[in-house]
Structure formats: C-alpha cells, structure tokens
Amino acid sequence: MTALLILFGVLGCVGALLTITLLRRGGGRADTVDGVLREQQALRQAQADRVSFGLGAHNSPPTASDNYIRGSRRP
Predict the structure, then answer these.
(1) Per-residue pLDDT tens over the stretch 14-56
(2) In degrees, to the nearest 5, what angle opens at C-alpha 42 toward C-alphas 47 and 60?
(3) pTM for the predicted model, two decimal places
(4) CA distance 17 to 11
(5) Cα(9)–Cα(17) distance, integer angstroms
(6) Per-residue pLDDT, 34
(7) What is the DSSP letter of 73?
(8) Model confidence band, residue 5 (pLDDT cutoffs 50, 70, 90)
C-alpha cells in the first residue's frame, strides 16, 4: 500500500512539474526570421526526400522474398 502511495505521489509531482513548465513557457512566438526560413527549407527538403525515396519501393515488381514474407505458398 505504501508503494502505491509513493507511486501516485511521484506521478503527481511529475504532472505538476510538467504543468508548471508549460505554463512558464508562455504562448508567445519568439521565432526569428532565420529560424523560420531554416524550418521552411527543412520541410521542403523532407518533402523532396519523401518523394524521391518513396517511388523506388512502390514501382518495383514483387520478388520471391515478398511471397515468403507474406506467407503465401507457391501453387
């Protein structure tokens, strides 16, 4: 019983600390123009990477290992 109370006490303290931390941050944006531009560039690069890396796997014909992984048997 004591261990259960200690567990709930620790969880309550962690929740209180997280709440205090989030409230202290505030909701205002303090991003600089350089940070926003860097983030936009990273998003564009991620989009290009998803497009270029995603096409190879979906347009290739199935291999023998694909049938083995799916568990299908040869007729």
Answers:
(1) 999 999 998 887 666 656 888 888 889 999 998 888 776 655 5
(2) 30
(3) 0.37
(4) 10
(5) 12
(6) 84
(7) P
(8) very high
Burial bucket for residue 19 (CB in 10 Å: 0-12, 13-18, 19+): exposed
| Backbone φ, ψ for residue 61 (5° rounding) | -70, 155
- In sequence order, the 6+-apart residues with CB closer than 8 A to the CB of 74 are 67
Which residue is listed with tokens 């014909």? 61
How far apart CA 72 and CA 75 sit, in angstroms, is: 9
Would the CA dihedral through 34, 35, 39, 45 be positive or negative? positive
Two tokens at 44?
Answer: 């564009």
- Is the separation of the CB atoms in 74 and 67 below 8 Å? yes
